[in-house]
Structures are given as C-alpha cells and as structure tokens.
Amino acid sequence: MTLQEIANYIGLDITSDKEITGLNTLTDSTEFELTFLENKKYLSDLKNTKAAAVLVTQENSSEVPQNTIALICDEPYLMLAKISKLFAPNVIEMDGEKPLVGGGTKVMPNVYIGKNSVIGSDCTIMAGAFIGDNVTIGNNTIIYPNVTIYRDCKVGNDCIIHAGTVVGSDGFGFANTKDGKYIKIYQNGNVEIGNDVEIGANCTIDRAVFKTTKIDSGVRIDNLVHIGHNCKISSGCILVSQVGLSGSTTLHPYVVMGGQSATAGHLEIAPFTTIAARGGVTKTIHEPKKQWAGFPLFEHRQWLKLQGKISNLLK
Predict the structure, then answer these.
(1) What share of the chain is helix, strand, coil (3-state, %, to 5)?
(2) Which of the residues 229, 252, 286, 300 is marked catalytic?
(3) Domain assignment of residue 51, given as a range
(4) What tens digit of pLDDT does each residue of 17-33 get?
(5) Which of 34, 52, 164, 184 has CA atoms 20 to 30 A from the CA of 146?
(6) Three-class SS string for 201-240?
(7) Which of 236, 213, 209 is nearest to 226 (CA)?
(8) Are residues 122 and 175 located together in one domain of the fold?
C-alpha cells in the first residue's frame, strides 16, 4: 500500500506515494516498512531507524531521522493496531499450489494440509492434524493427532510435536482506546522451529507481531507450556510443564525452567541459568550458570536459607 492510503485509513493527511510493504520494529524496519514509537525509552532506536515512516507524537517528532516520514498522532500504538489489519494475510488461501508431500511420509485420514505447504520425507502426520497454508515441515518429523500449525510457520527435521499443541496462534496483543475499547493488533509474523525439537502435548506457541517467534534446534518442551509472541528459545533449553513466557522473552542456550515458572516480557535470561519451580523472573538475568528460585527472585541458596528462617519463626 502507499503511505498516503495508510495515512488516510487512520485519518491523517499525508501526501506520499511511498510504497509500504509491512510493519516492523524501530530497529529492524527497512526503507519500505512502517514503524512506531510509544515509549520514550526507545528514543535512541527512533534516531537510528531506517523505516520509511514512523507513527510518533508531536513531542517526539523532532527525533525522527531526516529520511523517515513522521506520521504525527496522539496515540501511535493505537494507530499501529488499526493499521496492522491492513497487512494481515488471509485466514485461509483459496488459490495456490497443492501441498507437496515427500516420499515415505504417512498422512492419516482427516488431515488438512493447506495451499503451498511442503512436507518433507519420512514424516508421520496423524489424524486430525491441521497444517495451514505456506507451512514447511522438514524430514522425519512426527505430528501427533490434533496438532494445529497455522499458516506461514516452519518446522525443521527430526521434530516431534505431541497431541493438541498449537503452533502459530495469535499473540496476545491489544491497544486501548480512551474509552477502554480493545483494538486487536494483528499478529503478522510467524513461528520457526529448528531441528531435533520435541514439544509436549497441549502447548501453545504464539506467532510474532512482526518477524518470528523462534525455537532453536535441540530444545525440549514439556506438556502445557505457553510461549508468547516474539520469544526466542535458544538451543538446548528445557521448559518443564506449565512454564509461561511473556512476549519478547529471550532464553539464551541451555536455560532450564522448572514447572510453573514464568517470565515478564521483554527480558533475557543468561546461558546455563536454572529457574526453580514457580520462580518468577521480572528482570533480565545477565550472569550465566546461576540457579534462581522464588518470587521475588533470589539466588537458590539464599532462597533456601530464607525459607529456613521463616520456618524457624513458626516454631
């Protein structure tokens, strides 16, 4: 779409035939993409953005780079939500190529495979699975019954996805109007899963708002785990049952998270960190190879001492 068409859609008066191909973050936007700034803590990213245009308040408009067009509005995040609908793909494609299925792959009855999708060789796709449009699945991968893989997602070689898991459903994103109404932010990214990944039953892995929710090779995920939009799970991580990761969480290699532990969004956990069961991570963990527990989070040994002292108080 042209920038003028987009601006008119949200009630802004801009004259520009600049072609806009999609939405992206301040740091990742190209000269053909639109971005936004809502929070002042990202002003440094605004100054360096390469985006074609940015939704920004009048207060911050002076920081917009010379080659980027400022779309000045009172509520940039809300405007982004409205614009995201313009770039949302079709829920189901009616046109396109028939799916390609590799040699030796077994597809049981009642499986749906969408347009332009590619299934590798020696896979097993069990009954009730839904594989959307433009999905790629590698070789020797097992998809158990009633797994759902939404459009545009990718699954690598030698993976196992157990029954009832959903890959690529929408992330939880909404903007509020001044009168409290929720406006959906369409999640126009995807999910990519590497090689040799096992995902348990009834897990949910949300697609990204922009770009990709990524699970690297060698990850092990237990049953009933939720991974929010734009998370990155690095190689060798283990997530035990009922772990919940808020959006844009990054786990560096070989992080282990115990049952019912969770993170706040937009943080990172250093390599070889262990989070004990029910631990709550609210800030980035920078130092690797440490064990943490509790909420608020303590180093594990300190947490054990604290529990001991609390117990003594009750005697």
Answers:
(1) 15, 30, 55
(2) 229
(3) 3-87
(4) 999 999 999 999 999 99
(5) 184
(6) CCCEEECCCCCEEEECCCCEECCCCEECCCCEECCCCEEC
(7) 213
(8) yes
